[in-house]
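Lab notebook, bench 4. We co-purified these components, and the gel suggests they stay together. Before we commit to crystallization screens, I want a quick structural picture of the whole thing.
Request: model the full complex, all chains together.
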Amino acid sequence: DSGVTQTPKHLITATGQRVTLRCSPRSGDLSVYWYQQSLDQGLQFLIQYYNGEERAKGNILERFSAQQFPDLHSELNLSSLELGDSALYFCASSVGISREPQHFGDGTRLSIL
Amino acid sequence: DQQVKQNSPSLSVQEGRISILNCDYTNSMFDYFLWYKKYPAEGPTFLISISSIKDKNEDGRFTVFLNKSAKHLSLHIVPSQPGDSAVYFCAASAGGEGGSEKLVFGKGTKLTVNP
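Here is the predicted assembly.
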């Protein structure tokens, strides 16, 4: 158990809809990262927050947004969903932003029908 | 453009023998490297890391070797156990502006350890 909690585990929805994925980092961790894993692309970095502030952005679509709240949990919002958004979405956390491992949750599997 | 490459999609070894997983990278700015293990229906689990100032790091049965000139790293597992059967991901970071630790992952190597 990594200590990172992601909910829900599975989400099934339709094209055009909007969903919110939630992540609770390990106790004491200030950084939260979001990654997308699709079949052909592997794990791709989306966005990082540190202590409530956006720190870095990867190949995150404009239809996607995220935030980190004062209690340090984070939410990833996906809107105007397309079939290609079907993927596993992982959240990871670390204490800070220096050279240290990121610890991953078990992911949310998003299926777009 | 794949900056971190794991060229072997799968590897099969006998229990008790050595498993060697390889990873190549192209971005010379990468200075921190990690290996993760992933079981089905679980998130990646951190195994071991190495900074670019070192060429070897050991933790129990796991050793990571870094060859900066060749832009190559490898993970050695000795001795291999059936419970090591999983997908192994190599990851790298370049310590971006302000210290962001965005990880770039390879596509993974599926290790099977046969009893």
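Residues 32 and 51 of chain B are 5 Å apart (CA to CA). Worth comparing against the SEC data before the next meeting. The mean pLDDT of chain B is 93.
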